[in-house]
Structure formats: C-alpha cells, structure tokens
Amino acid sequence: MSSTNQPNTIFLTPEEDERMRKTLKIRLQKCQLLAGQPRVTSNPKSGLNQVAAASLLSDIAAAPDRGLKSQKARPDTVVAFAVGRPYPPCTLLLQDLQLMRMSDLRIETHHRGRVLTLRRVAPVVKLVALSWTVVQEESSGETERLEVSLHKSRHGQELLESGSIFEVKEPYFTLSDQGDPTLRIDHPSDLVVCKDVFRTDSPRSPTEELGDLEGAVSATAHTSPAGNTAREWKEEGNAALKQQNLLLAHENYTQGLQLVTRDGAAKEDLVCDLFRNRAYVNLILNRLDEARADALASLTGLEDQKNKELDSKAYFRAGCAAYDLGEFQEAKRFFEEQQRLTPDRKDAAARLRQTELRIQEQDTGVYDFKKIKAGLSVGRPRVDAASFTRNVRVGESPGRGRGLFANRDIDSGEIIICEKTFCVVWGHEEEALTAMTYDSRDDRIRVSPAGLCKAIVQKLLDNPSQVGKVMDLYGDYQGIDKQLIKEASGLVIDAFQVHDIVSRNAFGPGSVYSGHHYGEGEFNNASAGLWILASYINHSCISNSEKESMGDLMVLRATRPISANEEITHSYDASSDYDARTVALMNTWGFTCTCTLCIAEKADGPALRKKRQELENEANALVGRDIAVRAKRLSIIKARRLARSINDTYDDERYKDLPRMALLRIQKWLAEAATTR
Ligand SMILES: C[S@@+](CC[C@H](N)C(=O)[O-])C[C@H]1O[C@@H](n2cnc3c(N)ncnc32)[C@H](O)[C@@H]1O
C-alpha cells in the first residue's frame, strides 16, 4: 500500500491481527449478551478509588517526554477500538426529553427520548482516545462511570473538566474496553455541560493584527456574578480576553448580547461593541461563520469619524472570516469597504492585494509554486492559496457512485485541480492520532486517522456552513441524513458518519519538506487530510492523473491528454502485484476494481501471476542493489534478460494497449543505464 494514498499503513502479523480481533470481538459479544439487563448498583467508593488511581497513573504517563511520541510504536501500543455499530446522535431539544433515573439504566441500551442529569464527583482521567470520570445522581447518591470517546477537547479545553453538572442526552449505557459498565458519549452534542462552563480554557495568544478591543478594562474579574448588566458582561468579556481565556470571553459577550436582545434594546453602541468584540474572539477560535455574522451585525453605518473607524474594524474582521472560509470575492468586498471607510489604514490595502491574488489563482490556476514551496516549514505546513476547480465537475460514474469529470480537454502535464485541504492533521501536531479499528460490519481491521476525525468534527461544530460539503461525501453509514440540526446546545454532528467518510476519503498528504515523509514508519501519529473535491475521484489502475502535495495544497496533474467529459481517475494503490492491490482496494475502500488491466491480470490466473511476481522481485532486487548509471555490464545483461523473461509472461493480444506493470521499474533502470553508455 502506498503511503501517499493512505493515511498510514500497518502490517500486523497473523498473531497480532488475531489477538486484536479477539479482544475487540469479546467486548462486543459481552455487550450483546448483557443487552437490556438492569444496571447493577456500583459501590461509590470503588469507582472513586479507581478514578483516583487511574488519574495518578495517567499523570505519570503524561509526564513530559516529547521523544516518546515520535518513537516507532508497536501495533500493540497503538490505540485500538471497535467500530461498526454506529448510532445516531440525539436530535431532540433538552426540553423535549424525559428525565430518567440512574436506576432505569439498562446495559447496552440507547435510552431514546430520555435525559440524565449528573454531577461529576471525581477528577477526569485523560487517555489517548477517551476521557472518563465518575458521576453521581444527586437524588439517589448513586455513582457511575462516564466516558467520552475521541472528541474530548474543544479549543484545548477538556469537555468533562469544563463543568461539574452534565445533562446526558439519550444516554448510551454499555461496557468499557475493560468490561466495566459505563455511560458512553460518542457524539459531542449528546453531552450538555450545564454549569461552570469555560473555566479551564488553556491560554492562547490572540493574533495581534485583528485589532484591539473597544472599552477594554484591566483584567480583574474571573467569575461572573449573576445579575450583571450588559455593560458589565462586556467588561468581563474584555477582561477574560486580556487573560486569553477565549471561551470565557465568548460566553461573557454572549451573555451581554442575550441581555440586550431580550430587553429589545435598539442597536446602540453597546450592542455593536459586544458583536464586534465577539467577532474578534470567534476569529481566533476559528468560528468563522459566527465571526462574519457578528462583524456584520456590529456595523453602525454612521459616517462620523469614530463610527467609521469602528465599522472599518468590523469590515476587517468580516473580511478575515470570509478569507479563511475561502470566500474570496466576499472577502474582497469587505476589505474594499474597510478601505473606503479608512483609506489610510495599511492593513486594508495589504489584505486586498492578498485577496486579489487568491481570486487570480482561483480563476486561472496559475500559482507561484516556487514561492509556495519555499514558504513551507514544520511550523508552517499550511499554504496561503486558493483552490482552482474550474476544469472539473462532479457527475455520475456508473458502477462507482459519483466521480469527477473534465469540463474541457486537458493536456498531459496540465493542472486538473489544485485544492486546499478542508482539514489536515500533520504527524508532528498534538492532535495527530492514528488508531486501529476493528469493524464488525465486515470483520476487518483498518488503520484510522482518529485525530483527523476529531479535528473535522470540531471544525464542523464551529462552522455549520461547512457541514453539507463534508456530509455529502461517500461513506458506508448514512448518519442523520445530512441535516443541519441547530438547537439550544449547538449543532448536531454524527461522529460515526464523519468516521466512515474519513475512512473512505482521507489520505496522507505526503511530504511537506524534502526528504521527509510524515508518518512513514510511525504508527500512532501519521499525517492525514481530507480534500473535498479530490474525494470524488474514483480509482483506476490505469489512471489519467497524479497527485502532488505542497503542504496542504494538493496539485492534481494529467498524466496523459484527457478529453472533455472524460472521467478523471487516480490510482488509490499503485502496486504492480494484482493480488495485493485487490486485497488493499477491498480492505480500505470496499470495492473490486474492474478496469481493463485488472480484467487482464485476473485472466492470467494465479500461477502465471506468481511466476511474474517472482521475476519482478528478482528484478527489483537487482535495481535496488546496483545504481543504474554506475551499473556493470554483467548487471545490465542480467537486467535485460530479466526484463525479457517478465515480458514473456504477458500475452500480446491480452495486453494490447495495457501497461505491463511488472516491467515498469526495470525498464526505467535500463533506460537510465543506457544514457551513460
Ligand atoms: C473517494 S470515494 C470516490 C467517490 C465516490 N465514488 C462517491 O460516490 O462519492 C471512494 C469510493 O468510491 C468508490 N469507488 C472508487 N473507485 C471505484 C472503482 N474503480 N470501482 C468501484 N467503486 C469505486 C468506492 O466505493 C470507494 O470507497
């Protein structure tokens, strides 16, 4: 399997494969066996002791040893979990759910239409793929384990740690991997944090270019007493922001806005300040939809100098949000407004020039690749560029679902598309996490970029306008039917659907810096990304395009002339070994390729394929041993003989117009060797 197509590749020995399969299967079977049985009341003390011990251990395990992360992990040290029994998130409002008691819980049951109110009574144990704690029901004093899978942090904040009272919507009561009964949260929106929200946000430094705040006060207050006026909420928001507590600042501005909106206040200075300040916080939090909406809501439209300055600032924030969303025409309009209001401000002119460059890239497909490559580094793997997509459209591809088709004739070597990633997690980033999954639907073990799934869920929760394009992608599980469900506690995203979409569409971005491939040989933190348009490209072993990564920009070029309306294809697996390729395509993407090459190779039969493979292995060994330009005569004679023998395994009639894959490497070597003679 090639590392450029897949987020990561792990080869398990049959014993490792069996052990993992067995462990995960046993848990699933145990769940099935106990399904519907009443919960057994647990001893509150034992749960608390367990969490205290585990918490201490996890603290020790988390002791700073950065080297550990880059060590080559063995498969048995990689996070493994079972998938394949997806369930939808709760889509009901809290007030439409019926309160339930802990004593009503049944094992391996989704308690639809119900809600549990609980208090956290223990510290949070943070593991790689999940966090857990002990919660208590106030009325009965009963305790239970509560576990949040994968999507544990929001903006550096541990979800379980962020409050002490939780509403668990439609609780799922099951068994943990260790076989302990547990309440389990898979969808972030199923856990509603009720009190003390946003107290533990980790500090972040706001981007300076975004501008300072109106009416900033010195940082004093940390907790917001009830009964604040809207102005006090604003001041508390500003104080929280000064302390870089972004979530608290956001909450304070929101409280202020709720107050003024509830009171039906006219659009006065205070309302505008609250919106403008919240726009700033949202920009830093990457909540771009709300940042843009807030900035526009803050506009006064007044032409006196003070208000022109304030509106200029708001347009700048709206422009930045539109730019980061890739909506460059809109961003241009906002920056132009900013320039009109405050012609002397340099930032407007600079951002306008930058936006015009993006629009040019979008329209022409002409990029300064030299500059882009020169600007890449470990700290800056994301490229400031637009996507060029005009050459293609999505259409039906019979037998393969949807596919990408050329809008016009494209020459060999020409750019087909150039696409910025929707979301990428680099191997060296904190969020990177590769897990092994056992899928009970097809009994297969796969490598899953779990960190990418988590990052995508977070991005969607923060930017509802982006939900449709991700949820439209192909995945085995249909989820909650691409609906945008907004409710009091936030947007509902089906985390299982994201998982399935990622497993069929994500791939490794390859190298950002020369000579170093992220993720290669590293099991637990490979780089992986999702490119929306490129996700529509179907596979063919005799494809007409090739991908190249420049940071998070993916450049797809034609490898031969492509006619208008022809389907664009890419090779998901370029292995010359038919049998290995067929297994990989089924295992990772769930289909059998029926291209003309596969049909021919299949018709050759296993014996001939085996013979060809042996000859190819021999040729590869020679090529690997001797550098072509320095090869001795004897090596060249041997290489020619091997190439002839491989060629003899191909039937001329069957392989008319088809590539002879096993010959490609040795032929290239021979051609290189010939140039030096
Ligand atoms: C990255 S998506 C490609 C777009 C997808 N066809 C769609 O409808 O959105 C990968 C999935 O497309 C399908 N696919 C891709 N190439 C195929 C092929 N050559 N034959 C059959 N199915 C294919 C498989 O279901 C695979 O899991």
Automatic annotation (TrEMBL):
Q: Where is the SET domain?
A: 390-573
Superkingdom: Eukaryota
Which keywords does this chain's UniProt record carry?
Answer: TPR repeat
InterPro entries given in the database record: Gramillin-biosynth_MTr (IPR053209), SET_dom (IPR001214), SET_dom_sf (IPR046341), TPR-like_helical_dom_sf (IPR011990), TPR_rpt (IPR019734)
Which residue ranges contain the repeat TPR?
312-345
Residue spans making up a coiled coil are none
Annotated region Disordered: the residues are 202-227
Q: What is this protein called in UniProt?
A: SET-containing protein
Q: Which organism is it from?
A: Venustampulla echinocandica
